[in-house]
Design brief:
Mean pLDDT: 95
CATH topology: Nucleotidyltransferase, domain 5
Strand content: 25-35%
Number of helices: 4
CATH superfamily: Ribonuclease H-like superfamily/Ribonuclease H
Low-confidence stretches: none
CATH architecture: 2-Layer Sandwich
Shape: globular
Largest sheet: 5 strands, mixed
Strand order of the largest sheet: 3-2-1-4-5
Oligomer: single chain
Distance between the termini: 48 Å
Structural class: alpha/beta
Number of strands: 5
Order of helices and strands: EEEHEHHEH
């Protein structure tokens, strides 16, 4: 069974406000397979965090294909304790606007052998955070 580590982050300037997501996909040796950063319009920090996980799962399916994802173990590392614990089933989801994202993740998870969600300190998620900020900065430049 192959294992992949995925770092995700989402952020909004203002809450809600202009938001972006960052995803870094690595192998077990720490080599980056692919990374993504994109602006997602106006939303909340929590929604952005969820949308980063959705994007990561969709990209993993594209990178590895359906047959390989069935054998893939994926460890998500994120600095949002709330989202990590909600996805693990430890915290209740109380924000209605998060339900559709949770359901989308739940359905995407079915295509993988194993998915684990872990909370990590912000300083260990610098690459995904950088992608969020770069996407937000690029989007802001378009306005001027």
């Amino acid at each position: 069974m192959e294992k992949i580590i995925v770092y995700t982050d989402g952020g909004a300037r203002g809450n809600p406000g202009p938001a972006a997501i960052g995803v870094v996909i690595k192998d077990l040796n720490g080599h980056t397979i692919k990374s993504y950063g994109e602006a997602i319009g106006n939303t909340t920090n929590n929604e952005a965090e969820y949308r980063a996980v959705v994007l990561a799962l969709q990209k993993l399916k594209l990178i590895f294909g359906g047959k390989k994802t069935e054998k893939l173990s994926v460890e998500f590392r994120m600095d949002s304790e709330l989202v990590a614990c909600q996805l693990k089933g430890e915290y209740k989801i109380e924000e209605e606007r998060l339900f559709p994202h949770f359901i989308k993740i739940w359905n995407l998870k079915m295509d993988f052998r194993e998915i684990v969600f872990n909370h990590i300190p912000r300083e260990k998620n610098k690459e995904a955070d950088r992608l969020v900020n770069e996407a937000l900065d690029k989007e802001q430049e378009k306005l001027f």
